[in-house]
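Re: weekly structure request thread

Next one in the queue (137 aa):
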Amino acid sequence: ILLDKDGKRKHTRPTFSGQQIFALEKTFEQTKYLAGPERARLAYSLGMTESQVKVWFQNRRTKWRKKHAAEMATAKKKQDSETERLKGASENEEEDDDYNKPLDPNSDDEKITQLLKKHKPGGGGLLLHPTEGEASA
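Done, posted below.
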């Protein structure tokens, strides 16, 4: 028995054997809550007190909830980023509507050049009619 500095009994944390933890985990997989008689049977079979089993289950549920909440948050972030990606793709499709329309053969070259600049990196690309300076280069 351990005593604190005032001579009172010091509370010690129980250590459970691997077999006890294994049995507790297996039971927890089947049910997250134990009723009184089930808790008493499990405690007796593992050589533990009912309060130890009760507290172990309380702590294990807290751990399980935290893990479950973290998994849900990760899934939500993944879903949100996918939604943003799809949203961005649909906005680009809207911007590309002008680009994807058939060209009017009677349209002026300036409109075509602007569309090409808008959709080509660096604004370069195909020139239909080179300007005077470009023709001599």
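The mean pLDDT is 79. Residues 117 and 123 are 4 Å apart (CA to CA).
Next request, please.
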